[in-house]
Records
---
Amino acid sequence: MVVFPTRAAPHKSADIVGTGFAIDRGPFVDRLRDYLDAEAQAGTLDFRSADGQPQSAAEVAEQFLGMICSQFLWSQLVRTDFVPPNPTDAAIVDEAVALMLSRYGTGS
C-alpha cells in the first residue's frame, strides 16, 4: 500500500492518487469484471439492482472495489492519523466479498 504525504502538500497528493489510480486500476478492473461476468454466466451470481433491474458486471465490479477502497484510499487522503491495516489482515476484503455474495449470490 502506498502512503502519500498528505500533510506536506494535500493538493499534490490528491493529484498523484488520481493519476496513479486511473493508470493502475484499468487492467485489474477488467479482470474483475471478466471474472464477475463469468460467474453470472455460470449462474452463481445475479446482478440486479434493488428494484430488480439488471446491472452489468462492470457496475458490480465498481461497487466491490468501492467497498474496499473506501476503507483504504479515502482514509489516507482525509485522515492525517490514518494507519493502514496489516497487509495480511484480509478482514476488509472478506467483508466486501460476504456483502457481495449476500446481495448477488444465487446459492448455486
Note: Residues 10-104 form one domain.
---
Amino acid sequence: MATQNLIPALPTSVRSAPYPKASPGYGKRAVPDQCPPAADDFAFLPERERYIAAYVDRLPDGAAMSIKSLAKSQPLYGQMAVGSALRALSVAGHLRQVRCAVGDGESIRWVTRTFWSRTARDHEWWTAFLAAEEGRCAPQPAVAPAGPPPWVPDEPAAAPETVEAPVPVLPEQRAGESQGPSPAYLALARLGRTDARLALSAADCAVLEQLAARWFARGADADYLTRALTAGLPEAVGSPVGFVRRRLLDKLPPDLPAAQDPPARRLMVECADCGALGKAEVFRDGLCGPCLRSARGAAAAPAPEEDSGAGCDVHDHVRRLREQLKAR
C-alpha cells in the first residue's frame, strides 16, 4: 500500500507575495565580507526578529525595504511589527538605514538605502564601512570615453614660412590709461576728498599705488583702507605722501588664508527609532543619543516575569556579539 503524503499544502493566501523592487538608487544593499548562510544565523534573536531577518536576508539587492513594502510582501506580521523588528535588527548590528546624496550641482537628490549584513556587526565596523561608503557617494571626476588614439601624420608637412607684421607697441603711459586706474589708485586719490589733510597728487598716488594694492590683495576694500588711513589724524600733516606711506606699511592687514567651507556631507545615518539624521560616528547600535539613553534605561528596568519583552533578547544578542568579537 502506497504511503500517502498527509502534510497539507499551504493555502494560497498564506504564501508571500512577490517582493517589490525599489526605485533606482534605493532599497537593500548587502555589505561585503559576510559569512555564508547557515541554519543558526539569527538563532539568538526572538522569533519575530528571526523571521523578518531571514526574510530580508533572502531578498536580492534593490528590493524595497520600507516598512509598508515588507509588511505587504510577507504574510505573518503587519507594519507595526515589521517596524519594531527592523529597529531591533538595527540595534543587533544587522542593518543600517542611511540617506545618500546622489548626483551633483542642481541635479542632486537624496535616496534612502538599507545596508544589510547577515553577519552581525559592531558599532566600529559600521562606522568604518559608512565612512568608506560616503567616499564612494562623492561625485567622481569625469573620465574621457575610451577610444582610438587621435591620428597623427607620420611626417607633418612643413608650414610655409610667413613674415608676421610687427605689432605696434603702445607706450606704457597710454597702455595704463586704456585699462583705467586700479582700485588702489582710486582709493588713494579719494583720500583728499575724505580728509583734506591727506590730499595726494597724481604722482603721489602712482608712487603709493603698489603699497595700497597689497591691502586689496589681502582682502581689504576701499572703505576699509580709507578708514585705516584717516583714523586718528594729527591736527596738521606736513607731508601727506610720507604720512600715508608710513601708515600703509605699519597698518598692513594680516594675510589670512582663504576660508574653506567644510565638505558637504553626502551620507547621513538614520536613527532606527526616531528617524533623526546624523553622522555615523555619533550613532551607537543604530540609535541617536536620546534614543540610546531611553533604550538603556528601559533595558535596566526590571521586567515582569510573565512578560519577557523582545528588546531584552536583542540586547542579549548584542552582548554576545561583542563578546565573540573580543574573543577573536
Note: Strands lie at 27-30, 95-102, 109-116, 267-270, 277-278.
